[in-house]
Design a protein that fits this description.
Elements lengths: L2 H7 L10 H14 L2 E2 L13 H10 L6 H14 L3 E9 L13 E8 L2 E5 L11 E2 L6 E3 L2 E8 L2 E8 L11 E8 L10 H6 L7 H4 L2 E6 L2 E6 L2 E6 L8 E6 L2 H12 L22
Antiparallel strand pairs: 1-10, 2-3, 2-9, 3-4, 4-5, 6-7, 7-8, 8-9, 10-11, 11-12, 12-13
């Protein structure tokens, strides 16, 4: 890894000392510059988790990736910068089927700083923007939402607030789980089988839907199949706004280039089909 090239890719500059301020800055900038996308699956390519290949794809070719790629590479960067990083495995609650995925469904990481543990995740899509403290189950308000980490026995549920008042999240609030995980450290090799699963299973969102999404300062821009979705943050006194637009293949190519900085080297087939619920709700 050329650390300076990676930092430049995400709009940061060296040196970066291993502090909470640095961690927050890197985490947010990664989400603002590196798309969450599965386009390789829909161009006939295979996603491989070898770190040099992830570096080449995301840093040198200026692509994005799904969790195993974005978080896999980001965890390597943090280690290179001197952070204490532990890889963790999560199971995502599928928003289309309501079912949790199998073990090693999602790659996340825990960073320990001065005895304080932080959850980091730059590979989820519409998740949190800054590291979440693992030392509290209280709501943690960020620019794009309110989140909490709720412990239940050995499991931790990462949840987002829906409804209620963002200023007073304890009032009239519903919490939706996005994924669950344990604090047991994992190895990179542990995720290879599930990486293959997500490229071939009818129960995987990544196989069933081509997608590309990027955090914006004032919302999020996403392409799923042939549809463009733009979400904006609520302004004072107003509700958040979400617009959906049907796209031609030419428009998809233009948007990938102009909004995400992605130019694909292989023919791309947009896809958006129903997901088959897994046989087991893990």
């Amino acid at each position: 890894m050329d650390v300076e090239k990676y930092l430049s890719r995400i709009g940061c500059s060296a040196p970066c000392s291993p502090t909470l301020k640095t961690l927050r800055h890197l985490h947010l900038n990664h989400l603002l510059t590196v798309p969450f996308e599965d386009l390789s699956i829909h161009t006939g390519e295979r996603v491989k988790l070898d770190l040099p290949l992830l570096y080449e794809k995301i840093v040198l070719k200026r692509r994005g990736g799904f969790c195993y790629e974005n978080n896999g590479l980001f965890s390597w960067l943090l280690s290179q910068l001197g952070f204490e990083v532990h890889i963790l495995a999560a199971q995502v609650k599928n928003r289309f089927t309501g079912a949790y995925g199998p073990p090693f469904d999602h790659f996340i990481m825990m960073v320990t700083l001065d005895g304080h543990r932080w959850l980091c995740d730059v590979g989820f899509g519409s998740g949190f923007q800054l590291p979440l403290s693992l030392e509290t189950d209280s709501p943690q308000r960020q620019s794009h939402g309110v989140y909490r980490l709720r412990a239940q026995d050995k499991l931790v549920f990462m949840e987002v607030q829906s409804g209620g008042d963002a200023v007073k999240p304890e009032q009239d609030t519903a919490w939706n789980a996005l994924y669950k995980f344990t604090l047991e450290p994992c190895q990179r090799e542990d995720f290879r089988a599930m990486c293959d699963y997500h490229q071939s299973s009818l129960s995987s969102i990544f196989f069933c839907k081509s997608l590309c999404s990027l955090l914006l300062a004032d919302g999020r821009i996403t392409i799923i199949g042939r549809k463009l979705i733009i979400s904006s943050l609520p302004t004072e006194g107003d509700q958040p706004v979400k617009t959906k637009t049907d796209l031609t293949e030419e428009e998809i190519t233009e948007l990938l280039r102009d909004k995400f900085g992605i130019v694909l080297s292989s023919p791309f087939t947009p896809k958006d089909v129903d997901i088959v619920p897994p046989p087991v709700n893990y």
